[in-house]
Amino acid sequence: MEGLPKLPGFDFANRLRQKHHVPQSFKYTKGYPVPEKPICGIGGELLNEDSIYFCTDQTDEVLYDPILTYGRVRHLPVKPFRPHFVLYDQKTLKFSAFFRQGVPESPRETFRIRYVNILYFLEDDSMTVLEPTVENCGYPQGRLVRRGKIAKNCLGELYSWKDLNIGIDLEINGYVFHITNCDPFTKEFLLSNGIELNEMEFAPPDPAMNERSISARQSFKHHKMYPVAEDKLRKYLEYQGKVLHFDCLLDEEDQPGGEKMTYKMFYFLEDDTVSIKELKENQEGRDYFPMMLRKQRLPKNWKELPVTYPSISMELSSAETSQYYSPRDLLVGGTIFVFGRKFLLLDCDQFTRRYYERVLKIIQPDAVRVKSPEPRTPKPTLPIYLGLGTPEDSIASHHSLVPRSPRKDVVTYLVNMNKHLRYGCVLDNAHPEDTIRKFVLSLSLADGTITIMESTIRNSGIRGGRFLSPTKVWKPDCDPNAPEYYTAKDFYIGAIIIVHAHRFRIVSSDLYVYRYMQAHPEMFSTTAIETVQAYLLAEGHLKEDLRQAIAEDCKRHPPEDVVDYAIEPRGIGEVDKRLENFTLEEAKKDEQIMAAVAAARHDCPSPVIPDEEIKKGYHSNEHGELALQGQIEGDEVVRVGKSVRFDDQC
Predict the structure, then answer these.
(1) pTM above 0.85?
(2) Neighbour count for residue 605 (Cβ, 10 Å)
(3) DM10 domain spans which residues (predicted)?
């Protein structure tokens, strides 16, 4: 193995090694390099000589590892090493001391006592001496000894923190400093390291400074006392942005046109100025002024002017005014005068109350409660309808800046959806060419709109079609600002409906109108129901109702000759007998009466759907009851001698 070349692949070096530094083999002892055998190999690994395989005694005890039996030994965690300069970084011992300095060739003093602070820096065992500044002392002060390690004696020994204590003399550069006291950190540090501190001493007074203070007090008595000028800059910097807020009330009800109005008053502590702000509720019906009083100093009595003051001048300066309002004059519940106007202070904010308690030692009273006047809400007046759109649209655009569609009765619309009342009508005017025109009027129960369709008459020059789109129609002679519309109770046989200056007379109706009147009799008058019933009876559309009424009457009043229908099923029943009696009695009437009845009836058929356009617009869910009645197929109606006879269908 020793003969192999030291090339990659020919050695057994550890490829996982991370450290490759060579161990130290020299060290300095007393300034001389001394060789030393390394205790480890390259990268801190164990040497081959320290291995158990190099032991001369090849026994099992040597090769046996006791960890296999007793386990590994738990070692306490080792604290990380921290250098001395890191451990004591920015830690300083402070001692108070003084030294005596001679003053030669002076008739007033022979020595001076100078007070200094000795600082000991633990991070590098350096020291410095600083002298606090004394005004008008007559000699330079500041740093007396530059920071550094100071020698204790001629042998080169340096001062250490162990050499410092209270009551000892410290010689530095020919000056002898006597230590009198130290700060709390220094006391704690020295006591924790086993050093007993001496008793604290008091530094002797400086005779020169004592004599100067005595002479200053004696000379001050002979000076005249002048008021100290106020430091405006200091006051501005201290109270900048601090404002006292007050709620005040101006009561001028005793004056013509006056009333109670509230304002906001601000007192600026930085320059003792006052401003009064207008509130939003006071600007209703008045000119807009953001401030009632601009920011200025407020005099207590602005009418007290000196005799020499010119009356032509309008502005007051500080020379003419002796007293101004201060924070002590502004108390809740008190009254102040602002250039002749009387203001009552009602309340203040929390900052103002804290300022009075802490700075002025005054407790502000509780807020004054004043009964506020009832808000005057002007009654809005609706504008006059101009004829553009519907009145509902005009009112909706009046209430909001952005036009909105008027509200609809959704419940009524959903209940009466696809329900229409149809009537046949003719024009009621003096023009002979309009006598042949026939119309179908449809009233929508969902939204109250009226639709009029005209029937087409061949070879008459009348095209027919839609005469009126779905529209709410006003009643004649109603107020345009609050119009009244036609409703279902206004329609009956013989009624006159005026639609845009056109007079329509209702002459017929469909069966659904009568059914709707029977279901809602409270909506219609008795006359309206009777007219529709008489028309439908004359047209023969109420045959089933008549048959049912006769049957119920037969049950209540049975005849004497009761026919057994089980024995004679094909015989004539009691209902048919009464119908025949009814028709015979009617046939015996005078022909003149029948002619009068026929003349009373207008030659207008039932309101049958005239064309495809009406069929598209008509949607009904009740085809059996709501369909318009025309010619009834499957029923044979025989008119003989103007008398009606129904075939027996029993």
Answers:
(1) no
(2) 14
(3) 89-194, 240-360, 417-521
